[in-house]
């Protein structure tokens, strides 16, 4: 990355980090209902992957999806409003934390079901005109749109994901499977749930595989550029195994359970590799002073503060709109209950 790209990456990562820290504050203040799954520590993966995408490319996300959505360029104000269940949210408050989407940006949705975003990404890849999908030879194998499926290592044993691996390889779909390998499926260490690594599993399906330092945004960006070009050129799907770590619990409610599945030393070891600190150090090497970084931080803080103000000012949906965007014919019971005629 050149200096301009590195500054942009720093801004994106700082925005994701501050967004997530603010989400925790808002959840604890009961301004956001339920629990949320923070992306703190994994910012380099979303930032590097999304930076390599073109404007027509699409992605599917996970229950831990705020970083992907912001990394792709969604408005933090509308994202906060979505988490608060307000009408100005990305999905008018109906998607919430785990099902937010912005089709205008190619964000085909977060997904609360582990691994379930992958087949949606495969469908988008199929629709883009994958060279192997039609079963006919072609001289021009490049496609306009690449699909990215984000998921964690905890999804690697989900049947729907493995089936998507198989079809994507067989049909040479223009896909990138981006595995955010943070070592844990909720509280279960990866080694306790599988004999082989995610990379070894993907290799067995015939995917092109690359292992990446997911705490290094430049390493992720370089690997993502290669993966997107590989997929776009008609050479088939790619599996990126991004080794990363979440600095926080599985979700905002974990602390109430008193779970101790990670040691203090392990967490501090990974915190010593904070991806944002690493980018700041590199920017200093590019000639930026601490005052320059402080100015960038202030700009991000102002952006997030304005986003929260916007979300708080947004109205809650009217009860009479509860059945809006429901496409099945209402039953007599539901029609009566919600005032439909």
Automatic annotation (TrEMBL):
InterPro entries given in the database record: DH_E1, PDH_E1_Alpha_Subunit, THDP-binding
Keywords: Oxidoreductase, Thiamine pyrophosphate
Signal peptide positions (record): none
Gene Ontology MF annotations: magnesium ion binding; pyruvate dehydrogenase (acetyl-transferring) activity
Cofactors: thiamine diphosphate
Record-level GO BP terms: pyruvate decarboxylation to acetyl-CoA
Domain Dehydrogenase E1 component as annotated: residue spans: 12-319
Gene3D superfamilies per UniProt: 3.40.50.970
A Pfam match: E1_dh
Protein name: Dehydrogenase E1 component domain-containing protein
């Amino acid at each position: 990355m050149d200096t301009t790209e590195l500054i942009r990456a720093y801004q994106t990562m700082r925005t994701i980090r501050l967004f997530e820290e603010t989400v925790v504050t808002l959840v604890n203040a009961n301004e956001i209902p339920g629990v949320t799954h923070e992306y703190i520590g994994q910012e380099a993966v979303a930032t590097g992957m999304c930076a390599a995408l073109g404007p027509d490319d699409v992605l599917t996300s996970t229950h831990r999806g705020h970083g992907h959505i912001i990394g792709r360029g969604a408005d933090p104000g509308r994202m906060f409003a979505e988490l608060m269940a307000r009408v100005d949210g990305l999905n008018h408050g109906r998607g919430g934390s785990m099902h937010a989407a912005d089709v205008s940006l190619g964000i085909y949705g977060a997904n609360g079901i582990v691994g379930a975003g992958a087949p949606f990404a495969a469908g988008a890849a199929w629709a883009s005109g994958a060279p192997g999908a039609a079963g006919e030879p072609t001289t021009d194998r490049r496609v306009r749109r690449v699909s990215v499926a984000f998921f964690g290592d905890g999804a690697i044993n989900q049947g729907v994901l493995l089936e998507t691996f198989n079809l994507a390889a067989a049909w040479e779909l223009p896909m990138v499977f981006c595995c955010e390998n943070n070592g844990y499926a909720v509280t279960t260490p990866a080694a306790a749930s599988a004999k082989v690594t995610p990379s070894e599993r993907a290799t067995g399906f015939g995917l092109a595989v690359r292992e990446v330092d997911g705490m290094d945004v430049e390493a992720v960006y370089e690997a993502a550029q290669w993966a997107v070009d590989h997929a776009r050129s008609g050479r088939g799907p790619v599996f990126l195994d991004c080794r990363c770590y979440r600095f926080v619990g599985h979700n905002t409610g974990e602390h109430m359970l008193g779970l101790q599945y990670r040691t203090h030393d392990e967490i501090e070891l990974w915190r010593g590799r904070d991806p944002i600190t690493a980018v700041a150090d590199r920017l200093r090497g590019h000639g930026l002073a601490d005052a320059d970084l402080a100015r960038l931080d202030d700009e991000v803080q102002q952006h997030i503060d304005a986003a929260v103000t916007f979300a708080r000012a947004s109205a809650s949906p009217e009860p009479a709109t509860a059945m809006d965007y429901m496409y099945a014919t209402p039953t007599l019971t539901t029609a009566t209950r919600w005032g439909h005629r």
